[in-house]
Structures are given as C-alpha cells and as structure tokens.
Amino acid sequence: MSNDTLTIAGSDYRSRLLVGTGKYRDLEQTDAAIRESGAEIVTVAIRRSNIGQSADEPNLLDVISPERHTILPNTAGCYTAEDAVRTCRLARELLDGHSLVKLEVLGDTTTLYPEMRETFRAAEQLVADGFQVMVYMTDDPIAARQLEDIGCVAVMPLAAPIGSGLGIQNRYNLRTIIENAGVPVLVDAGVGTASDAAVAMELGCDGVLMNTAIAGARDPVRMARAMRFAVQAGRDAYLAGRIPRKRHASASSPLDGTFF
Fold it and tell me: Any idea what the Cα angle at residue 148 is, between residues 145 and 153, rounded to 5°?
C-alpha cells in the first residue's frame, strides 16, 4: 500500500492518523506519543499552546518540529467567526505564512458541538483570504457539500462529542458524507479506542483526527501505537472489501468435491 496516500491541499501523506498536542503530562510525553503514532499532521490549538507567542514559556515547536511534521493550527476555543478568523491569521503570522488550518467554531461549552452558522461565515472569510481550510462540522451531509462548495479542502464530521470516547455513533451519516464528497473526509472527535478508529476507516473515511483518546489513556504512548495500527488495518480492510452480511452460515470448507 506504499502508493495509498492521503492527499490534502495538494500534499501527500503516508499516515492517515492526525493527532493533537493537548492534555499530555509534559512535552516529553507529547513528543513520545506523537512519534509512536506515526502521524505526519499534528494539530495545535493556537489559543492554548505556545508556538512563539510567549518567549518565556516552553515552545511546543521545540518538540513538534515543522521540519518533521505538518503543523495544523486549529481554532479550538473559538465561539464566533471573528475569533476563528483572527486566530488563523495569528497562526499564519507565527508560522511564516502557513495557510493550512483547521477551522473549529463551537456552539457551547457543554456539548462542544460545532456552531454551523458561524462555521460557514468563518470558512467563507478564510477561503477568500487564501487559507486552506479543513473544517470541523456536524455529521450533516448537506453542510458537508456546502462547505466543499465554499472551497474547504477537507471536511471533518464529528463521530461523537469531543473528548467523549463514545466511538462512531453515526455510521449512516458518515457513509452518506463519504459517498458524496469530492474532498477528504476525516472523522474528528469521539474516538475512544483503537476499534473506533478502525471502524471509521472501514466506513471509508480518508483519515481520523484524535487527541483525548491518546493523551487521556493510561499509557498514551502505547495507545498512540495502537491507533496507528488500527487506522492502517481499517484502511486495508476498506480497500480489501468485506464479505456481505448474511443471515445464514456459509461453510469455510464447502462439501462439494470432498473425498469421502
């Protein structure tokens, strides 16, 4: 599967696992888990992480190097289009013109569900301003199509609420989004363990983004490794094509042609 790459905004990636940088014990653990995950795209919450804004604090870029990873700034913690656009512009300035961003506009502090009206507004402004926008969204196939029409380079429907670990709750909607999308579809939010990541990939998702499922595990580094293999296995299973579900048995060793 060496030629089975994930293409986002014209760049190819071998790994289909994208990971975050929050909630780890320290930068050393952050570095170890991300290395074990094999992820090439690493997302950073600009409003919560220091990537140069505070000269007197540890800089996340000391362990998550832009030379080794594609840094994906995100707008976590933003509740309006204006805040999200301002945050992306700050990220572009800090990262020397970097244009690939993850747009996330939240509706409330309880569910952390996307606020889609503000998400649309922010997406339109960011695309017009030259950003390449990967967008966190509800599991709404119509919204996915509209965001693609705006010019977003990837749509990222939630599988369950952020940090909930509930797994894939919406297989029908995800399949519908996947079947109609002309850009990559990545599950963002809700993954709790390796089997959840495998299910997302078996459904046909192009990738999975996660943070809490790894950083919140008892052993984040081991979980990062499990997620890497789960995403690979799910992708292989999707490409291989599962057998159809049947109500009755189908013998692995048919009786036809037996010797006695």
Answer: 145
Nearest-5° Cα angle at 17, 16 to 21: 145
The catalytic residues are 102
The number of C-alpha atoms within 13 Å of 90 and in the hemisphere containing its C-beta is 19
Q: Which of 59, 51, 19, 64 is nearest to 38 (CA)?
A: 19
Nearest to 33 by CA among 212, 173, 243: 212
What is the number of alpha carbons within 13 Å of residue 115 lying toward its C-beta? Answer: 19
Residue from 186, 177, 182, 175 nearest 136 by CA: 186
C-alpha dist (Å) from residue 143 to 36, 64, 148:
34, 33, 9
Which alpha helices (DSSP H) does 12-167 contain, by range?
27-37, 81-94, 116-128, 141-150
Instruction: Give the amino acid at 6.
Output: L
Q: How far is CA 170 from the centre of its chain?
A: 16
Query: How many other CB atoms are found less than 10 A from the CB of residue 214?
Result: 28
Which pLDDT tens digit goes with each residue over 95-119? Answer: 888 899 999 999 999 999 999 999 9
CB under 8 Å to 14, separation ≥6 — which residues? 5, 6, 40
**pTM, full prediction:** 0.91
**Token match 């291989």: residue?**
240
Contact between residue 114 and residue 142 where contact means Cβ atoms under 8 Å apart: no
- Read out DSSP for 170-200? -HHHHHHHHHH-SS-BEEES---SHHHHHHH
Tens digit of pLDDT for each residue in 153-196?
A: 999 999 999 999 999 999 999 999 999 999 999 999 999 999 99
